[in-house]
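Why does residue order matter? Because the sequence determines the fold. Keep that principle in mind as you read this record.
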Amino acid sequence: MTEHWYPAYIGLGSNLNNPILQLETAFVLLSEIPLTRLVRQSSLYRSEPFGGIEQPDFVNAVAALITQLPAAELLLELQSIENKCGRKRTDIKWGPRSLDLDLLVYSDHEINETNLIVPHPGIGERNFVLLPLGEVALEVYVPNLGRVARINAHASDLAVSRIE
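Structure:
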């Protein structure tokens, strides 16, 4: 039986409980997911909150993985990491959070299930996702949108800056 590895790209975001440390911890925990390898991580970016709720700025990044896990199992691993890092789920959409991990792209798959939509909705308009994604995978193809290099030009105009 041949092992098949799938590329997957994970969006990371935090604006509570020392966001930079939250993302650094998340990168370590991503590298420990079974049957998965962390192959690249972007720089950290500071961004304005999305969605109009008064809250602190976010720190965002993207991780490039290869995995043998199906997308649904990878999502469960991501949610487990969020929980380990103190994520408290609420009904508030786009609210503050200690850690948010989003499965942005999983190979060339399109998935539309109750708890999982891939590519992640809104990816094409969010520069706080596209800038770090472009840093790790500028030529990756996002189903129904095109290559990151091309869609990056059409992203939102939220203020985003690389953290040096």
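The beta strands are 6-14, 36-41, 45-47, 58-67, 100-106, 111-113, 116-118, 141-142, 146-147, 160-162.
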